[in-house]
Amino acid sequence: MRIARFVHSGGMSFGVVEGEPEAGAEALTVAQIEGHPFGEIRFTGDRWALADVRLLSPILPSKVVGIGRNYAEHAAEMGNDVPAEPLMFLKPTTSVIGHGDVVRLPPQSKQVEHEAELAVVIGASGARRADKAAAAKAIFGYTVANDVTARDLQRKDVQFTRAKGFDSFCPLGPWIVTGVDPADLEVRCEVLPAGSPPGAEAEVRQLGRTRDMIFDPVTLVSYVSHVMTLLPGDVILTGTPAGVGPMADGDTVTVRIEQVGALTNRVVALD
């Protein structure tokens, strides 16, 4: 099931996206549900063509927990060792944007980079000091994320807060997918440079598989829950494969995760 949060003529709602994404957005519809998606799904009977609504970030979490260096090749390209236990950081909720929204490059940084990631969404039960079995049950579904990072500020500050925390630095979407096995999914990042002619192909920057994670999603949920209580809707970013690189004013960045979806955002420099 694909759960979206969207704006329509009557306001903002959650809904179930119907149809096959491979056929294009024009072939998809979204069926409105009552309230939030964490309980029993009940349809209101209202339905829209996906092209006639605006997708928002699929959830507004109380917190976004990032995991660093969770792929060995990425740790190596950053000149770092593989951590002995998950390396956690936080991204503020004000960094969250949705599919189609604009990533804004701040003037404080000269090196803002993309990081394609599978994101875990916590369900209704939440998680507190959860063992592996409870952690698995706490996962509602998965979405696509771009853990946008000001790399020069990350090196300068050492800790990650400023580098990871600018407004618009956490695109999520286009929806949450339930019932997906995350054990071996392709993770891809494509960048279409500014000024590319119509029909130009995007450059594949990152191409990895979730099987190469050092710590799998269930392990991450359990680990994080022993540090902080995870509430319904909270998001854990599971790390990025090798190939991170710069984003420039006018670029279009798409993160694709097999069986989950494609998240696209345009990049604009702030004055």
What do these coordinates show?
The structure is a single chain. The protein contains five helices and 20 strands. Helix content is 13%, strand content 39%. By secondary structure, the chain is mostly beta strands. Residues 1-58 form the Rv2993c-like N-terminal domain. This is 2-hydroxyhepta-2,4-diene-1,7-dioate isomerase. InterPro entries: Fumarylacetoacetase-like_C (IPR011234), Fumarylacetoacetase_C_sf (IPR036663), Rv2993c-like_N (IPR018833). Residues 63-268 form the Fumarylacetoacetase-like C-terminal domain.
Looking at the overall shape, the CATH architecture of the largest domain is: Alpha-Beta Complex
Overall outline: globular
**Radius of gyration of CA atoms, rounded to a whole number:** 18 Å
Give start-end ranges of low-pLDDT stretches: none
If you consult CATH, what is the topology of the largest domain? Fumarylacetoacetate hydrolase, domain 2
State the total count of DSSP E strands.
20
> What is the count of DSSP helices, taking H or I runs of 4+ residues?
5
Per DSSP, what share of the residues sits in E-state strands of 2 or more residues?
35-45%
Secondary-structure element sequence? EEEEEEHEEEEEHEEHHEEEHEEEE
Helix content: 10-25%
Number of domains: 2
**CATH homologous superfamily label of the largest domain:** Fumarylacetoacetase-like, C-terminal domain
- Class from secondary-structure proportions: mainly beta
Rounded average pLDDT: 96
Q: How many strands, what sense, and barrel or not for the largest sheet?
A: 12 strands, mixed
Distance between the terminal alpha carbons, to the nearest Å?
A: 41 Å
CATH class of the largest domain: Alpha Beta
